[in-house]
Amino acid sequence: MTAQLIDGKALARSMEAKLAERIRALPRKPVLAVLLVGEDPASRVYVRNKVLACERTGIESRSVHLPETATEEDVIRQVRAWNEDPTVDGILVQLPLPRGIDAQRVIETVALEKDVDGFHVGSAGALMTGREGFRPCTPSGVMEMLESIGYELRGKHALVIGRSNIVGKPMAMMLLEKDATVTVAHSRTPNTKELALAADVIVAAAGRADLVTADMVKPGAVVIDVGMNRRPDGRLCGDVADDVRDAAGWLTPVPGGVGPMTIAMLLVNTVRSAEMRLGAK
Ligand SMILES: Nc1nc(=O)c2c([nH]1)NC[C@@H]1CN(c3ccc(C(=O)N[C@@H](CCC(=O)O)C(=O)O)cc3)C=[N+]21
User: Fold this and answer.
1) What's this model's pTM, rounded to 2 decimal places?
2) How far apart are the CA of 87 and the centre of ligand 1, in A?
3) What family does the Swiss-Prot or TrEMBL record give for this protein (predicted)?
4) Which of 119, 135, 140, 228 for mutating ligand 1's site (highest number of atoms within 8 Å of CB)?
């Protein structure tokens, strides 16, 4: 058996097309402000991809690039200026921030109603308690991918591998909200393989190449690969080994899977923010 691939790139493009229509109905373009601090090469690529996606859909992006030597106060000053600017709908501070800057403090400075990353403690609390708020883009994108294949989560056993605030924990909350039985494994879990073999859905979000191998996957399971790693030869790969294609029923590729969906959900959040600000919805 060979897994069916869930084409995140195609799904992202079709979501962008729908967003473009919603944007045309607004009195002005939605505006996404993006702050990049320092010279991390991966961050530059990601920010560039986000700016390009904005251009494709009709969102105006305003990026500010501060030097590696910028202080926490410099960063916070920029965020506050965007908080107060009524023409800015979404604020994204690209992570990771340089050493010495308290990322959580910066994130908590972003106005809750412009927190399109969904990283603010208030957004996290809203998700945890089932209230409306911005939801982190990567797990939202995963939920869209599961929905796109008509997957019914109710009563299914989902294993999330990874417990970060930006992927693992919100992912677990969203799966739980859809009535899955959710287990979270992490670097200190002794029996991840056993848990994985019992899972109907595996979300691999640990940031380690080849973490999930075919012998860990129940035949026909859905395997979602959130990993973004580089092989020594420079090739991009996820957390899921190539041989999982022969065991899984469904699989998301890297590249072209969760990554493009993450960006699409950022655009969705930005458009929703603009609609609320402009009284459209
Ligand atoms: N404030 C903040 N928000 C984020 O959402 C955020 C962040 N910081 N820091 C870094 C991570 C990572 N992330 C990715 C998004 C898209 C791709 C993506 O589009 N990947 C392409 C390939 C890109 C390539 O070729 O390198 C793909 O999977 O097909 C990857 C990674 C967002 N992040």
Assistant:
1) 0.97
2) 25
3) Belongs to the tetrahydrofolate dehydrogenase/cyclohydrolase family.
4) 228
**ipTM tops 0.90:** yes
Per the annotation, binding residues for NADP(+) are 162-164
| Domains of the chain, first to last | 28-112 (3.40.50.10860), 136-259 (3.40.50.720)
Cβ 99 vs Cβ 224: under 8 Å: no
Residue 260, by phi and psi: left (phi above 0), alpha (psi -120 to 50) or beta? Answer: alpha
Q: Does 117 participate in catalysis according to the annotation? A: yes
Q: Provide CB contacts within 8 A for 266, sequence distance 6+.
A: 32, 50, 53, 90, 92, 116, 117, 137
